Amino acid sequence: MASIVELLTLNNPVFKSYVFWTGVLVLKMLFMSVLTAMQRFKTKTFANPEDLLSPKLKVKFDDPNVERVRRAHRNDLENIVPFLIIGLLYTLTNPSAFLAINLFRAVGIARIVHTLVYAVVVIPQPARALSFFVAAGATVYMAFQVMVTAAF
């Protein structure tokens, strides 16, 4: 049985993959704030009076383009944060490197695709649903494995 110290080192390919995909997804979530700001400037839609670029503009909360990006960002927070927690715990179960690395990869790529088809180049369903369920399914699988490992 590997110790926690051995599992949480960059010599462990599972942990190394987790660290890489965590970095990718954190940067992706941070980029969503930039994408929201870009949409606000593009549409001249600002939520605070001090942000208005001109006295002719008014505070507005309902621009569909801005709201789409904000919903995508909120979806990231609802799904990536649980992955960050459960992915680390899953690493501690000493899973198969092949399976774990591919689960982390699937979550990372699916979350990027989700943003692309939801907030950047809107593509009709089922593109968004498929990307959502790939990441959610992988995260649920890891959570289940963590629970089973901890229970026995």
From TrEMBL:
Annotated Gene Ontology cellular component terms: endoplasmic reticulum membrane; mitochondrial outer membrane
GO molecular function: glutathione transferase activity
Transmembrane helix as UniProt keyword: yes
Role summary: Conjugation of reduced glutathione to a wide number of exogenous and endogenous hydrophobic electrophiles.
Reaction(s) the record says it catalyses: RX + glutathione = an S-substituted glutathione + a halide anion + H(+)
Topology relative to the membrane: Multi-pass membrane protein
First-listed, main subcellular location of the protein, grouped into a coarse class: endoplasmic reticulum
PANTHER family: MICROSOMAL GLUTATHIONE S-TRANSFERASE 1
Protein name according to UniProt: Microsomal glutathione S-transferase 1
Family per similarity comment: Belongs to the MAPEG family.
